[in-house]
Amino acid sequence: GMSVVSLIDVHLFVFPAVILWALGISLGLPLALSAAAESGDDPSARVSAVATIGYLALLAGPPSLGLLGESFGLRSAILLPLVLVVTSVLCARVMRPRVVADGVAREAVHS
After folding, report:
1. How far is CA 5 from CA 12, 28, 72, 84, in A?
2. Which of 37, 48, 71, 77 could pair with 43 in a Cys bridge, judged by C-beta atoms 3.0 to 4.6 Å apart?
């Protein structure tokens, strides 16, 4: 959704893209909180950290986008969160925990 809104200039595609973007945003925090609660030791500290980061993004994100929008245009400002999302998706794959058994590293399988 973000990529269509920021990169494509066809108005026919913007409304569905905004809906997809809103669905992605509305599912992001609950999924992150659930994943934090289910992974590792001390789930309450993990959930607290994720909630703090989420609220910080909620408070700092709109003014930051507004400042970038004033300087470079709103469609260009939306590229910053798009770059951050793509970077986090790529880093999530690399940061996946690995299981080492018999000296051979394997990807962990979570069910």
Report:
1. 11, 19, 15, 16
2. 37
